Automatic annotation (TrEMBL):
Pfam families: FtsX, MacB_PCD. It is found in: Cell membrane. One of its GO terms (cellular component) is plasma membrane. Residues 20-237 form the MacB-like periplasmic core domain. One of its GO terms (molecular function) is transmembrane transporter activity. This is FtsX-like permease family protein. The chain crosses the membrane at residues 21-43, 283-304, 333-356, 376-400, 421-446, 669-694, 721-741, 753-778. PANTHER family: ABC-TYPE MACROLIDE FAMILY EXPORT SYSTEM PERMEASE COMPONENT 2 (PTHR30572:SF18), MEMBRANE COMPONENT OF TRANSPORTER-RELATED (PTHR30572). It comes from Chitinophaga eiseniae. It comes from the Bacteria. Keywords: Cell membrane, Membrane, Transmembrane, Transmembrane helix. Residues 288-403, 673-781 form the ABC3 transporter permease C-terminal domain.
Length: 792
């Protein structure tokens, strides 16, 4: 019996090649898109889930409240963790990590190791990073001990055993011993680094660090003992802070609010202090899109299958007359659906394997290494295909098996109004989804274009940036390249727009004449920073070599800092006193607000001071002519003056735009999945148009005999579908507006959703619908009316 079912199913599918191809293609595209989204969402949700003790690991967050603002932070003062473990028996262990941007020298070769962290010796006790060589309890215990990843070990030592070998670290070329080799950290972890340096190395270089309660620089993780309540522990923190730092807090007017954040909550729910960030909103959005695509694919399956019901009516009637029961017909038709789904499953495997490298590239990370590496995904995909076949095949099977044989064989077969209404409702639903995605795609594109084109308040064109890492020869290097013909301007600073800024404890005289305490962003700059970046002065003056006190007693602030202090006009702030990091002086100028951070953040108060010793980043404006020759000249001077460091550079415009890489990837993924949803919707519309043309075959023949033109027939068959598209547009518009309005809220600077976006989206949907319907309508209109009449 099974063999007979399969034989009949294959014959029916082969006899209707076009319908079968469209059905399989729609399912294949839908399954492939959903599978990719499933992998992406699963990967995003899997960050740090591989740690065995993940449910007991928490990051300590520390929000700092000053008289003027509250600063949310994911870093803590250095003494927090050691004192917490002594005071609270609920804490099993702690570990601190801190960025370590290191120069690493091995033999005559130097590397700038950006993926490095200082870490406490307990790191391998708290986290489950696999140590291939070395003792996890002692690998990071001693001063000048380092642990390398497999990749870093091969980079520095080739195939030789690195254990016990020595490399030189930082500008002081400190001999450091390799005490461990760890497996490359997985992609789905926040702490993805190639080198770990013992925390004792850092504390030796910075004496008194573990007593510096005002020095925020450690990311602190606590491992709580089993059955410990994190909330109960947090309730004890205020007393802890008061015991250890109460007097200093009151003196500085800076108050801490300390909390615990679960490890697995950090990646998707943090916009500050995390080494790697994701977006829970994006995960939700892609999950909804996956469900949409799956739903649309199932709708198509139903519509395209029932569209063939007219063609198979006589077959069903004859089979019932010769004794076929409804249960046998149900099994037959559901079997055909399953066969289609299994074909789509096989094609999905092929398509997935072909597109996986491109998808990993688009996502910006290795989401999957392939089906062979993760066979469980094949099983999941197979079960999904079977489930779709069962669920989507039930309705068509019930419809096809319910035909009355006498009426069918007499040619009086017609479908019920309920079935027609259901099919139209399904098409409205899938086109409403498609129009929503079209609107979303346009808004995402407009927001990305807005962020790239917005006036940032400074010039970032033709600016080449080199981080000298504080090398003593940096001033000599700057002077040397300033003489190159292709270099028009140079300036040194502690940071650049789009990069990190220091937070500085600052006291500034406010409108009431009081010294107001705030933690303000700070740039150390030289005399040329403001003019080179074309930052506009709105009050006072910039730094000048004509004033000897500018190096010690002068500060420039931005407009937001002026507002923070309560001044109504920038000129009112000029001449006011400040104290910052041991320096005192007056505000000499106010610059117009410029975006020194991402457009996802509001512009914050900024201070700038002349501090030659704190300037490590060199910004170079290069002429647009012989760029290759200019770069060669810069590199030649670097190798002459700073030979111990590898030469590297980047352009500021690309560096600044790198902040939006996550949003750009989201936009590209959104666009591609929206395109697939629209394609599948078109297949569904084609199915309904085909069904309608088959149902009205006799009517079309009579109209043509009576003189109706091809245009008349096309209009006749199209108008009902265009009504469905219009209804879809009415449903999609408020849904899309609300969804995209919520998405735009993550940006501090964003576009307004214009009315024309909805109009354009509606027109696009209409054009797509007309193009899809016209094929089947024209085909029906060109059919021989004699054959149409005979068919009836």
């Amino acid at each position: 019996m099974l063999k007979n079912y399969l034989k009949i199913a294959w014959r029916n599918l082969w006899r209707n090649k076009i319908f079968s191809l469209i059905n399989v293609l729609g399912l294949t595209v839908g399954l492939t898109a959903c599978f990719f989204i499933f992998l992406y969402v699963h990967f995003e949700l899997s960050y740090d889930q591989f740690h065995a003790k993940k449910d007991r690991i928490y990051r300590v967050t520390c929000d700092v409240k000053t008289p003027s603002e509250t600063i949310k932070g994911g870093i803590t003062p250095w003494p927090f963790a050691p004192n917490m473990q002594r005071d609270f028996p609920e804490i099993d262990a702690f570990t601190r990590v801190s960025n370590a941007n290191l120069l690493v020298k091995k033999g005559n070769i130097s590397f700038q190791e950006d993926q490095a962290l200082f870490a406490d010796s307990s790191l391998f006790r708290v986290f489950d990073f696999k140590l291939l060589k070395g003792d996890p309890n002692t690998a990071l215990r001693d001063v000048n001990s380092i642990v390398l990843s497999e990749t870093a070990a091969k980079k520095y030592f080739g195939n030789a055993d690195p254990m016990g070998e020595t490399v030189l670290l930082t500008g002081d070329l400190i001999p450091s011993t390799v005490t461990g080799v760890m497996a490359d950290m997985p992609e789905n972890t926040q702490l993805k680094v190639n080198m770990l340096v013992s925390m004792s190395t850092l504390t030796k270089l910075n004496a008194g660090l573990d007593k510096a309660w005002g020095n925020f620089g450690a990311t602190t993780f606590l491992l709580l003992k089993p059955n410990t309540s994190a909330d109960a522990l947090v309730a004890k923190f205020p007393d802890f802070i008061e015991r250890h730092n109460g007097d200093e807090r009151r003196k500085s007017k800076m108050f801490y609010t300390v909390a615990l954040q679960p490890l697995t909550d950090i990646y998707l729910n943090t916009t500050y202090g995390a080494y790697v960030n994701g977006s829970r909103n994006n995960v939700y959005i892609f999950t909804v899109i996956a469900l949409f695509i799956l739903f649309i694919a199932a709708i198509n399956f139903v519509n395209l299958t029932t569209a063939r019901s007219v063609e198979r009516a006589k077959e069903i009637g004859i089979r019932k007359v010769v004794g076929a029961t409804r249960q046998e017909l149900l099994r037959q038709f559901i079997g055909e659906c399953l066969l289609l789904c299994l074909m789509a499953f096989v094609l999905t495997l092929v398509l997935f394997s072909a597109l996986l490298p491109a998808f990993n590239l688009l996502a910006g990370k290795t989401i999957s290494h392939g089906l062979i590496a993760e066979p469980v995904y094949i099983v999941i995909l197979l079960l999904a295909a079977i489930l779709i076949g069962l669920l989507a095949g039930i309705y068509p099977a019930l419809v096809l098996s319910s035909f009355k044989p006498i009426l069918v064989l007499k040619g009086r077969f017609s479908t019920s109004s309920k079935g027609t209404l259901l099919r139209k409702g399904l098409v409205v639903t899938q086109f409403a989804i498609s129009i929503t995605l079209i609107i979303g795609t346009i808004i995402v594109y407009l927001q990305m274009r807005y962020m790239h084109n917005k006036d940032l308040g400074f010039s970032k064109e033709q600016v080449l940036v080199i981080d000298t890492h504080g090398d003593p020869a940096r001033d000599a290097f700057k002077n040397a390249i300033s003489a190159l013909p292709g270099v028009t301007h140079t300036t040194m600073s502690s940071g650049i727009p789009g990069g990190n800024t220091e937070g500085a404890y600052t006291e500034i005289q406010n409108k009431q004449g009081e010294m107001q305490v705030a933690n303000l962003d700070l740039y150390f700059v030289d005399y040329d920073f403001i003019p080179q970046y074309k930052i506009k002065l709105v009050a006072g003056r910039g730094f000048s070599r004509d004033f000897g006190t500018d190096t010690t007693h002068a500060m420039v602030v931005n407009e937001t800092a002026v507002k923070l202090l309560g001044y109504s006009k920038p000129t009112d702030a000029v001449g006011r006193s400040f104290r910052q990091w041991g320096r005192e002086g007056t505000i000499i100028g106010v610059v117009k607000d410029f975006h020194f951070r991402s457009l996802q953040e509001n512009i914050k108060p900024l201070t700038m001071r002349i501090e030659p010793g704190g300037c490590e980043v060199l910004s170079i404006v290069v002429a647009p002519g012989d760029l290759r020759g200019t770069l060669a000249g810069i590199e030649s001077n670097w190798k002459t003056l700073i030979p111990n460091r590898p030469f590297s550079y980047y352009f500021l415009d690309k560096f600044f735009d790198r902040q939006y890489r996550t949003e750009e990837r989201f936009g590209k993924l959104f666009f591609n999945f929206a395109l697939l949803a629209i394609l599948i919707s078109c297949l569904g519309l084609l199915g309904l148009a085909s069904y309608s043309a088959l149902q009205r075959t006799r009517e079309i023949g009579i109209r043509k005999v009576m003189g109706a033109s091809v245009t008349d027939i096309v209009n006749l068959l199209s108008k009902d579908f265009l009504k469905l598209v219009f209804l879809s547009f009415l449903i999609a518009t408020p849904l899309a507006w609300y969804s995209m309005h919520k998405w735009l809220e993550i940006f501090a600077y964003r576009i307004s959703i214009a009315w024309w976006v909805f109009l354009v989206s509606g027109v696009i949907a209409l054009v797509i619908a007309i193009a899809t319907i016209s094929y089947q309508a024209i085909k029906a209109a060109l059919a021989d009316p004699v054959k149409s009449m005979r068919a009836e």
